[in-house]
Inverse folding.
């Protein structure tokens, strides 16, 4: 009877991350000791609705790592059903860095320094849930933080020369990626998956030779937007959907940088380095 009365605790052995970038960060801490499941794959997190299988995975998760209702609104109800120690809402973390990004931009994973903060939160919570592995989780978080400090420096230096290059984005999602280097982005829409406003289009008309970045997959609508604004166009894989199965967080940031520079390096007077 005692074994039947508490079947859940023994089965809670999986960390569930709402989107792939958060899973990549979580895996830096779990390192294979705890399976990590990506909840939302191949779908827009803003408009995703959990399936029956997703709800079951959430109910038996050791820990849910998600951004918050600003990003995955439909998850709010499911997340609220979990005990407080079995969920981390990353956008609630006060220490997050938003310099150069809109205060409403929830794509915090695009800044390596924020990835380090998220990893530290995950390690701390896992240490509470699995105290026998606490020091291991915390040591991995420290190692990751050091690596992210270096990666942030590399990213900022690589983007530094583009501060005068006009950069337009289809929605407010890339401030965290570009903003730390002092590179300003002009958004055609907000970060909620909304459309492109006519006022924003008019304001940015004639902005100069630069780049328009949209989300992958590349599409004719965004290509036409770029053409109408007199800009070059490239698609950025902000969720890491195009990365290989064994990719890590560093690979995500390096891939995004390569995709961005494929357009930025073509702009006259841009940074050719």
């Amino acid at each position: 009877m005692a074994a039947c009365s508490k079947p859940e605790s023994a089965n809670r052995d999986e960390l569930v991350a709402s989107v792939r970038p958060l899973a990549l960060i979580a895996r830096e801490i779990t390192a294979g000791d705890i399976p990590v499941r990506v909840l939302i794959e191949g779908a827009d997190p803003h408009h995703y609705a959990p399936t029956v299988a997703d709800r079951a995975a959430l109910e038996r998760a050791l820990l849910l790592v998600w951004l918050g209702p600003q990003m995955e609104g439909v998850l709010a109800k499911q997340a609220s059903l979990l005990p407080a120690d079995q969920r981390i809402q990353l956008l609630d973390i006060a220490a997050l860095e938003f310099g150069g990004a809109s205060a409403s931009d929830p794509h915090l994973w695009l800044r390596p320094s924020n990835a380090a903060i998220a990893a530290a939160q995950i390690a701390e919570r896992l240490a509470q849930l699995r105290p026998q592995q606490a020091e291991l989780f915390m040591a991995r978080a420290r190692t990751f933080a050091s690596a992210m400090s270096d990666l942030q420096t590399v990213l900022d230096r690589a983007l530094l020369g583009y501060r005068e290059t006009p950069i337009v984005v289809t929605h407010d999602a890339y401030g965290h990626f570009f903003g730390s280097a002092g590179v300003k982005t002009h958004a055609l829409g907000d970060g909620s998956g909304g459309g492109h406003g006519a006022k924003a289009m008019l304001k940015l008309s004639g902005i100069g030779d630069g780049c328009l970045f949209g989300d992958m997959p590349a599409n004719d609508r965004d290509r036409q937007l770029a053409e109408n604004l007199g800009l070059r166009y490239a698609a950025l894989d902000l969720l890491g959907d195009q990365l290989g199965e064994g990719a890590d967080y560093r690979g995500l940031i390096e891939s995004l940088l390569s995709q961005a520079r494929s357009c930025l390096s073509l702009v006259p007077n841009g940074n050719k380095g």
In short: The beta strands are 15-17, 36-38, 63-66, 87-89, 167-169, 186-187, 211-215, 232-236. Confidence is low (pLDDT under 50) at residues 1-10. DSSP finds eleven helices and eight strands in the chain. The first strand starts at residue 15 and ends at 17.
